[in-house]
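Problem 12. The chain below contains 325 residues. Write out its predicted structure in C-alpha cell notation.
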Amino acid sequence: MRVSHTLAASLAVSAVQASPLGKRNQVTTPTVNDGIILNYALTLEYLERKFYMEGLANYTREEFIADGFEDPFYDNLKEIYFDEQTHVSFLKENLEKAGITPTNELEYSFGTTTPMQFVGLSSVLEGVGVSAYLGAARDIMNKDYLDAAGSILAVEARHTSYIRASLGESPFPNPFDTPLGYNKVFSLAADFITGGSSPVALPFKQFPELPLQCSQYYYEADRSSVTFSGAFKEAAKNFGIKKETPIYAVFFSGLKKLPVQVRTTAGSAGDYKIDRIPAGVVGQTYVVLSKSATDFSDEQVIAGVGLLEVYKKGMTPATPKPKCH
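Solution.
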C-alpha cells in the first residue's frame, strides 16, 4: 500500500473550515455522574457508528483499493463498524438496566468525498474517542462501568493504531495517549452534528472555535509556527481581551500540557500566532487558547479545540504535504 499523509491534510481541512465565532459565555467544567458519562460515551459511539456506516455505503472495496487501501482493509473496516455497533448496543442496554434514559442518535455530516479522506478522518475520530474514554475514566464510580470503559478504550486504541498505520503514519507516535475533558471532546464532536434532538440534556458546552491557518509545511515540534486565524479579534469581541492581555496556546500531547504565550500579528486580520510548537509535542495533538499558563481548567479557555498532527523535529515525511482545501 502506498504511503499517504492524508491525516495531516484532514486536520488542516477541519481547521480551515471552522465557522466564525459567535458571542459565547465562558464554558465551565461540568458536574458528572456515571449515567451522564455513559450517555456521553453513547453520544460518541453513535457518531462513530454512523461514520463507518456511511463510509461503507458510500465507497466500494474497489474504490478503497484504487486509493491504495488493499485487501483486507475493507473487511477490517467492516469489523470496526461492528465494534462501534456493539459499543452502542452495550451502552444503551446498560443505561436501560440502570433505569436511565439513553440519548438518541443525532444527525451528522462528515464531509468526505473520497476513501482517502474518509480514512484520514477515521484516524482523527478514533484518536478523539481514545482521548474521551481516557479523560472520563477518573470520574467513573461503578467499577463494572470502569471495567467496560477500559475494555472499549483498548479496542478504540487498536482501531487508531491500525488506521494510522494504513495511512503511513506511526501507529504509536507517543508513549502516552492524551486524556481530554468533556467540553473539549464535545467541542470536537459538535463540529459534525447538524441536527436531531435527544431526550437527554447533557451538561457539556462547546468552546468558541479555534481556526488554524493552514500551513504549506508539516508541523514539527520545536520548529514550526502556528497561526490562529482571527482568534484575537474574536477573543476581544467575546471576552473583552486586550492586546496586552497574556494569552497562551496550550498543547495537549500525551500527559503533557505545554503552554506557549501567543502574540498578535500585524495588520487587521486579528490573528494570534506562536513562533514554535514546544518540544515534546508529537502525534495527534490538541490545542486551546487559555488565559492561564498554569491553570488548565475549562474556565480559562477562550477558544478551542484545534487539532494538529505534529512530528518530531527532523522526522517529517519525505513526501510533499497535501494542499489545503
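Discussion. Residues 34-58 form the longest helix (25 residues). Students who got a different answer should revisit the alignment rule from Section 12.3.
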